Amino acid sequence: MSKKTIKRIVTASITILAVIVVTLSGVGFYILHTALAPSKWAKNPDAAYDYMLSEYPFLQEWVASLKHKGELKETELTASDGTILHAYYIKAKQPTKKTAVIVHGHKNNAINMLHIAYLYSHDLGFNVLLPDLRAHGKSSGNHIQMGWNDRLDVMQWMDTANELFGDDTQMVIHGISMGAATAMMVSGEEQPHYVKAYVEDCGYTSVWDEFSYVAKKDYHLPQMPFLYIADRFCKWRYGWGFKEASAVDQVRKADKPMLFIHGDADTYVPTEMVYTLFDAKVSDKELWVVPGVAHALSYHDYPEEYTNRVKEFVNTYLNVVN
């Protein structure tokens, strides 16, 4: 074989290898961008209002009254890295120590949690705070954090809520989907004295598990090499990894009571994840797997039972009447 032929083979091999590397890297970056890039929908509270009032018509009169009376208020805080974060809050009609911090899901915003705010504020008489997570709603931020670094922001919001509502609250943290994962990630940190319980509704076990599931289901992509590449990009660009962002690891450390809710027809965050999470919680736990319900629709499909189950659970652990 001539030197010229060998040179051509080597050049062709290097070119093919470079194309493979660029293609794999491109797919990995696409996975990361698709999952973590802010969306116009998430940054549009007006669209969220329209959606919520169409899906939950009974909210219309309540929301109109809140706005007319100036009872749906807004506040901001500055995170430790200087990011400006936004939240809505509603004081209870009657003075109370009972307070709920309610956390929204992936590429939604605080307004998308008005139905849960209604449950706590209107039905249960709680104070309510609804934060916009980073890169959602009116909060700043350049990427979605999938709950992991959000847990630190939510802990700041918990302190803010405690101050807003009397500095001696008894608090429940309630999240749905990514908001549920966020709540569980918060639960494994050292807890303020005022936190009494958690409600997680269809949260995932970890970012790695959820991205693996979605990549396979929606894009027919295996973990190796695509998810590993996306994970490396995330660590390089944002400083955190998919595996460290683990709700189940945090739940293992959690010492506050937790109610787990999941629809048994969930094909976005698979239902089997809730059993892993429930088993990881050492004590003070309840599980409600809701028959026939898809992702994040347990309250939508069973509002009365959802309200009653949440009421019974939180009343067990919040030892105040008002």
Characterize the structure shown.
- The chain has 322 residues and is of the alpha/beta class.
- It has twelve helices and eight strands.
- The chain has helices spanning 3-36, 45-55, 59-68, 114-123, 150-164, 178-187, 207-219, 223-238, 247-253, 272-280, 298-301, 303-317, and strands at 73-78, 84-90, 98-103, 127-131, 170-176, 195-201, 258-263, 285-290.
- The protein has an eight-stranded mixed beta sheet with strand order 1-2-4-3-5-6-7-8, sandwiched between helices.
- α1 (3-36) crosses α8 (223-238) and α5 crosses α6 (178-187).
- The longest helix has 34 residues, at 3-36.
- The N and C termini lie far apart (89 Å).
- Mean pLDDT is 92; it is low at 15-22.
The largest sheet, given as strand count, sense and whether it forms a barrel, is: 8 strands, mixed
Distance between the ends: 89 Å
Overall pLDDT level? 92
Which class of secondary structure composition applies to the elements? Answer: alpha/beta
* Topology pattern, helix = H, strand = E: HHHEEEHEHEHEHHHEHEHH
What general outline do the C-alpha atoms trace? globular
- Number of strand elements: 8
Helix content: 40-55%
**Poorly predicted regions:** 15-22
| Number of discrete helical segments | 12
* Radius of gyration, CA atoms, in whole angstroms: 22 Å
Major sheet strand order: 1-2-4-3-5-6-7-8
Oligomer: single chain
* Beta-strand content estimate: 15-25%
Offer a few descriptive terms.
8 strands; 48% helix; single chain; alpha/beta; 12 helices
Offer a quick outline of the entry.
The protein has 322 residues and is α/β, with parallel strands linked by helices. It has helices spanning 3-36, 45-55, 59-68, 114-123, 150-164, 178-187, 207-219, 223-238, 247-253, 272-280, 298-301, 303-317, and strands at residues 73-78, 84-90, 98-103, 127-131, 170-176, 195-201, 258-263, 285-290.
